[in-house]
Amino acid sequence: MTDRYFIEDQKLVKQLPKSLTPLDENSGWQCELYVDKATGQKWEKYLFELFDEDEDAIGLRKYPYPSTEEIIRIALTSQHFDEVDGASALLIDREYDKIEFREKLLSEIEKDSSKVDKERYEIIYNRAELYDITNKREILGKHYKEIEADAKHFTQVTERAEKLKQIITKNN
Questions:
Q1: Cα torsion for 98, 103, 105, 110, to the nearest 10°?
Q2: What are the extents of the domains in the chain?
Q3: Nearest residue to 121 (alpha-carbon basis) of 157, 88, 91
Q4: Which residues pair with 58 in a beta bridge?
Q5: Which of 1, 8, 60, 168 could form a disulfide with 82 if both were Cys (CB 3.0 to 4.6 A apart)?
Q6: Residue 135, exposed/middle/buried by CB under 10 A (0-12, 13-18, 19+)?
Q7: Which pLDDT does position 82 carry in this prediction?
């Protein structure tokens, strides 16, 4: 367990809470903190939707979170696809806190798209919502030209994600 940052495999999640002790701390909306008494590592329990079954599931992720760069590395290299899922989901969650990731993620994939297989990219694309062209940047107090530039940026990022999807699908 200590080599993992994200666990969304429901079989593993059901086994783990026995070794974790709840803390009287809250880490966010519908998130609970636990500590592994053996290692002192904090884990955050969160809910997410299982796409195939249209129901909620429980995930666990190390807390505090790793850096955006580390989360991207995990998404691109983990041998556990549930960890790829969890990393990608955290990226989109942190975007609500104004932590941008799209440019960094796509740049890392573009460095060598042959290292990213179709299944991994599909997980990242869907869970990190790379298809979403919505402007995620603050608009209050901005001139409309700045807002238009931000909207154009997100459209271009989505186009890059689509292009990568085609390249990776072709390579696989």
A1: 180
A2: 1-64, 66-172
A3: 88
A4: 47
A5: 8
A6: middle
A7: 96
Is pLDDT larger for residue 71 or for residue 50? 71
CB-side exposure of 38: number of CA atoms within 13 Å? 6
DSSP states of 58-87 as a string? EEEEEESPPPHHHHHHHHHH-S-HHHHHHH
Neighbouring-strand partners of residue 23: none
Q: Are 58 and 45 in contact (CB under 8 A)?
A: yes
Q: Is the dihedral of CA 91, 96, 97, 102 positive or negative?
A: positive
Name which of 107, 90, 95, 103 is nearest 137 in CA terms: 95
Residue type, 30: Q
The more confident residue out of 35 and 51 is 35
Tokens of 81: 């696809």
